[in-house]
Structures are given as C-alpha cells and as structure tokens.
Amino acid sequence: MGRSPSCDGETGVKKGPWTIEEDKLLVEYIKEKGHGSWRRLPKLAGLNRCGKSCRLRWTNYLRPDIKRGRFTDDEEKLIIHLHSLLGNKWSSIATKLPGRTDNEIKNYWNTHLHKKLLGMGIDPVTHRPRTDLSLLAGLPGLLAVAGNFVDSGAATAAWNMNALKLQVDAAKFQLLQGLVRALTTAAAPAPAPGMDNLRALLAVSTGGIDQNMLLQQCQWNDMNNLPALTSSAPTSGMHNISGMFDGFSASDGLSSTELGCHGGVSGRNGTVDPMVADDQECKNNGGGGVSCEETPASSPFDGLQSLNLIDDLNTDGGWKDLLEQMSWLNSSEL
DNA sequence: AATAGGCCCAACCGCTCTAGT
DNA sequence: TACTAGAGCGGTTGGGCCTAT
C-alpha cells in the first residue's frame, strides 16, 4: 500500500503560487494532449513542478468548467444539506455542485458556513441544535453570576480565580461524563444527572476534593471503553439531557459527597467526545470511497426542549432568575 | 498613515485507495 | 496474493488582502 512518493522525492521542483506562464503551459498542454499521467506531465509540458501540483492547479483553478464567484443561496443550502448527509466528504459534495471544486467547497464551509451554523445555534458537525456545548460554554458565566449573586460576603471572597477554574474544569468533566452517558443510554431518562453534576461542582468548591480524586472516583478510565455512537443515536439520550435541565429546581437539596458517579460504560475504544463520534465513526470505516451512513439530521429531536430552556436562560436575567430559585447557593456548602 | 488582527483561499502535506503487474 | 505506482482525498498552512484602531 505504501505512501505515494508524490513530490517528496523530487528535488528542485518549484513550489508556491503559479505564474501566468506556468498556467499557460499547463492549459495548452492539457488542451492539446490531455493530462494523461500526472506524474509524467510536468516534464512533457516543460514545467518545473511535480505532477501532484499540476493536477491540483488544473482541477482547482484552471479547468474550463469551473464556476467562479460567490456561492448562491441555493448552493449554500445544498452544501449544508449534503454535509448533513455526507459529512466532510468534500469530493462527494462537489459532484452535486457543477462547476465547484471540493477545495472551494471545503474552504467555503470552513470560512462561512461553519460559523453561520454556529451562529444559528446548530452544531456544524452533527447538524443538530447545540445543547451540551452551549451549556459548557455558559459555565464560567454561570459561576461568575453565582459569585456576584451570593452577596458580597465570605462565599464570594472565597471564590478566587483558581477556585473558579477548578470548579469549571470539574464541572465540565462531570457534564461531559453525564452527556456521554446520556447519549449512550437508550433506556429511560437517567435521574436528573444535571443535579449530580452540580453537586460535584459544589463539592469541589469546598476545596476538599481535587480533580484527580474526582477522576478516580468516577472511573474516568472506563470512559475509554465507550460504546459506539452510531448515527442512530437514541433520541431518548437527548431526552436525558433535557432531564438535566429539568433537574434544576429550587427544591433540590445538595450533598457535598454525592458525586453522581455511575462508573464507565463498556464497548468502544477511542474518542470520548460524543460530538465528534459520528465523524470518527466515518473515519474509522476507512477513508476515501467509503460512504457514511446518513445522520438523522431531520429526525425528531427531543433535545429542542433543552435548547429552548437554554435560550430562555440566556435572555436578560435568565440565569439570575434561575439562581435566585436555587436557594442552595446560599447554603453553607459554598 | 501605520499597524495589528482577522479573514480568505490557493497550495501543500500526508494519508488511503485503486489498478496494474 | 503481495507489492508498487499513481491518483485522489481531507486537513492544514502561509501569505496576501481587508478592516478596525
């Protein structure tokens, strides 16, 4: 199977931007004789380039059927739709957009569409509404708000930056674990794992437990053996995440010792990030000619409930209102 | 006007796949 | 069946351009 020698072994070949003269030589040669063997082409065409570079220049730039200019709205929608089905199979996507190259589509995705989807609250990898990550991203804010809200007494003073960082890290870890568990559990909703995560957060905030200990207690190593997250990830898993938010209530008491650890899950080796699991699954199936199963982008999505909840919280005073209800923030455990 | 930072995209790199022997 | 050369793919980079300060 060996690696292609490509340009690696060739010394003295020119690299970098193509000149007009080089373009002309390449176009004229291909027009007259076709490209034939890309490896032999440079010599025959009188170019001091490697064949690979010539192929790239031709297919991405010089080909006469290449469409130039901005992507239309229709093209944009088609790319997003195809990406939801095919993932980063740029060449496959390009075959559905006449005149566009895989490189062009890839660049457009990375520079425009990726951000656009994020801005719309859609995960560009899974094409699902973002819930977990926005929650994680919101944690520092949550803690800051909490710090400000718990009057200006000793509790606030105790929350120095290092402690905050530790809390955020620990909470992220807990939330990730809960999230992975939720996504890999096809059974009925887990009992409010979100509250368990918060309990862990508060337990750490007392300073009595460090992260290593937390990791051990939660058997984080077992997380390396996660079951495969297939494209048919159970919607009930998302429902579990919804349950996390349902767990935020005024009446919830907190125990500093209950960490919400349920041990690991057996099955898969590899990634612990469920957000990239589908993509990884594709890659693991093996490169180029592989067709990935369609992701259920258009399937009913129970997690929308959670998304709405996050949106509500992100509106003015949302988090503060929530925290006001969480009387436990004033508890001695802080 | 100068400069820093961000954006964009052409081109490169390294890997896998496929076809030929 | 095993091996190799060549082709193709996806990820990444670097430098030019644009914009904000």
Automatic annotation (TrEMBL):
Residues 277-298 are annotated as: Disordered. SUPFAM superfamilies: Homeodomain-like. PROSITE patterns: HTH_MYB (PS51294), MYB_LIKE (PS50090). Residues 13-62, 63-117 form the HTH myb-type domain. GO terms for molecular function: DNA binding. Residues 10-62, 63-113 form the Myb-like domain. GO terms for cellular component: nucleus. This is Transcription factor MYB39. It comes from Triticum urartu. The gene is LOC125522190.
